[in-house]
Each structure stands twice: as C-alpha cells, then as structure tokens.
Design brief:
Strand content: 35-45%
Structural class: mainly beta
Helix content: under 10%
Radius of gyration: 13 Å
Largest sheet: 5 strands, antiparallel
Number of helices: 1
Shape: globular
Number of strands: 7
Number of domains: 1
C-alpha cells in the first residue's frame, strides 16, 4: 500500500484475527479497535501474517484516497495510540509477539 491514506467518511475497524500494522500508531491484534474521523490521514499499513477485520463506515461507501508522498514503514513500529484522556490509562502495548 503506497504511503498514507484517508477516507471522506468515518471509518472504524475491529480486529477479528491476525495482525495488522498501522505505521503511525502501532500494531493491532485480535480484539483491537480503531476509529478515524473523515479526512484523517493514517498508515502506511500492512501485515505479514494476514488478518480479518470488520470494517464499518459512516457517510457513504468506503473510498480510499492515497497520498503521493512516500512514508516510512516498519512491521515493528513504536506504540503511539491517539486516545481521549479518559481512555489513555486503559491502553497497553502488545507484549507478546505475533504468531508469524
């Protein structure tokens, strides 16, 4: 997937299985949840092991808009969630490695 991307609608993801990396915020595994407002850039993203996501969008069918600027990517990015203050204490970095 080239660089970062955004969508003109709200997007939320629930991770059913596998491992998926968003280079700007960290790695997701089973049970993880993420929500982006429309026009919020995220990524780049990828997976070594494969994944199953439940994706829901609000405001129309899913449409990806890709940046033309390259972005660095690592399958082991630092953990940098963006959370409301009330939820920050509930977040924790994955301590086990993915099963790949």
């Amino acid at each position: 997937m080239p660089g970062r991307f955004t969508h003109p609608m709200v997007e939320e993801l629930f991770m059913l299985d596998g491992s998926y990396v968003f280079g700007d915020v960290g790695r997701m595994q089973r049970g993880a949840y993420v929500w982006w407002r429309e026009h919020v850039w995220h990524g780049p993203a990828g997976s070594v092991s494969g994944y199953h996501l439940f994706i829901r969008v609000l405001g129309g069918p899913l449409k990806n808009e890709f940046s033309t600027e390259p972005a660095a990517f690592s399958y082991h990015p630092p953990y940098r969630p963006v959370l409301p203050a009330a939820l920050a204490g509930k977040a924790h970095e994955l301590t086990e490695d993915a099963s790949w």
